């Protein structure tokens, strides 16, 4: 157990490797109640959210979700988050655990001039992620609706083992599955969440800790706030250009800065790399061209699925082409690696939600 975002969180139950493998091959369940959750509602909620995020909400139907980022006026990333449209004037917003207080203050600060009400429900709604190729099948055993019919990146109301929940077909592992939100379940009275958790475990989901959460998201090439993205990094550098909709109507925070960055080009870009020799890259290790330092590892580790060291880091744009050789300084040794496609690192026909069924 470790302190994480003010919560006592498990790094592992049985072990990182068996938990990681359960997510890739069967089904794992993660307690994610430390994440931030907010209701945003009111006649101006769409205008308000379009102002504070870079993506475009205009195409969202009721029940659908959208991955996006919030930026500072400088273009730096305040956080990455998912918005779910529940009703025309009501959205459910989910963001990172470490940014709960900061994000809620940032959202509130920017409500001026908008008819919108924000309610932080992080401590009133429990949250768990059920992830893996058998996740939907396992959730179905306890659900009162057909969860197979919920499209990816959509959210639905349902009962899980008789308990009122929301379930979003999203996650942070690269696999199919759902993030389940247990409604009306305050921290002081966790019984509903415990019942849902225990029912899902009994149905076949393996409890997983932070270790497997990090190893699965890294294999999927997903960003970790505080490592791969933060307020000093803009979404263009981070490979998140696809969530920046410059042509959407009106102004959004950071638009002018991002326009300038797009026009002038970036000085660094996030790449993925795979080790060619034995070695485990870690956060903060140097990335080198020969013996010349060109960047730092932002996320790295051993891939249990591929049995090789993998990582991400920022390098000058001329080093981004796939196949480019780089070195990683692991302790005193220079260990050879190469730049690879990293969203995800694994073969999508074999692993992840796109896998051949």
CATH fold assignment of the largest domain:
Gyrase A, domain 2
User: What is the overall shape?
Assistant: globular
- Tell me the fraction of residues in β-strands, as a range: 25-35%
Per CATH, the class of the largest domain reads Alpha Beta
CATH architecture of the largest domain: 2-Layer Sandwich
Estimate percent helicity: 10-25%
Q: In CATH, what is the homologous superfamily of the largest domain?
A: Probable tRNA modification gtpase trme, domain 1
Structural class given helices, strands, pairing? alpha+beta
Question: Strands of the largest sheet, in order across it?
Answer: 10-11-12-9-3-13
Q: What's the tally of helices?
A: 7
Low-confidence stretches: none
Structure description:
This protein is of the alpha+beta class and 357 residues long. The chain folds into two domains: 7-217, Gyrase A, domain 2, CATH 3.30.1360; 267-344, Beta Barrel (Elongation Factor Tu (Ef-tu), domain 3). It contains seven helices and 19 strands. The chain has helices at residues 16-25, 45-52, 100-109, 135-140, 191-202, 210-219, 255-264, and strands spanning 2-4, 7-9, 28-31, 36-41, 65-71, 77-87, 90-95, 117-120, 126-131, 155-160, 163-168, 177-182, 206-208, 269-275, 286-289, 292-303, 308-315, 325-330, 333-340. The strands form four sheets. It has a six-stranded mixed sheet. It has a six-stranded antiparallel barrel with strand order 14-17-16-15-18-19. Strands 5-6-7-4-8 form a five-stranded antiparallel sheet, covered by helices on one side. Helix 1 crosses helix 6 (210-219). The radius of gyration is 20 Å and the shape is globular. The model has no long low-confidence stretch (mean pLDDT 97).
